[in-house]
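Lab notebook, design round three. We kept the backbone fixed and only want residue identities now. Task for the bench partner: fill in a sequence for the structure below.
Input structure tokens:
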């Protein structure tokens, strides 16, 4: 059983999400990390400043090996001007 820690920055980012349903979904998804590695939508990152990412809809939750939630960001839709 893994204990999940939150950095202040990640908690601030979570509070800034206006949609309560999305906020709740992210909290529930982070809660599933206690059963790591038996959780879905987690990917180990290579050549990235964070160790893992959890995909929650259009949101990404980045965390470290020590299960410290570091960063939350929304993935915007890509178009022809993205690249």
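Proposed sequence:
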């Amino acid at each position: 059983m893994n204990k999940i820690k939150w950095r202040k920055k990640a908690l601030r980012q979570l509070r800034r999400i206006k949609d309560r349903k999305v906020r709740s979904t992210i909290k529930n998804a982070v809660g599933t990390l206690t059963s790591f590695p038996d959780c879905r939508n987690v990917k180990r990152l290579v050549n990235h400043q964070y160790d893992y990412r959890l995909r929650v809809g259009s949101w990404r939750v980045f965390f470290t090996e020590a299960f410290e939630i570091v960063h939350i960001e929304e993935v915007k839709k890509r178009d022809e001007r993205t690249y």
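Keep this in mind before ordering anything: The helical segments are 8-15, 20-31.
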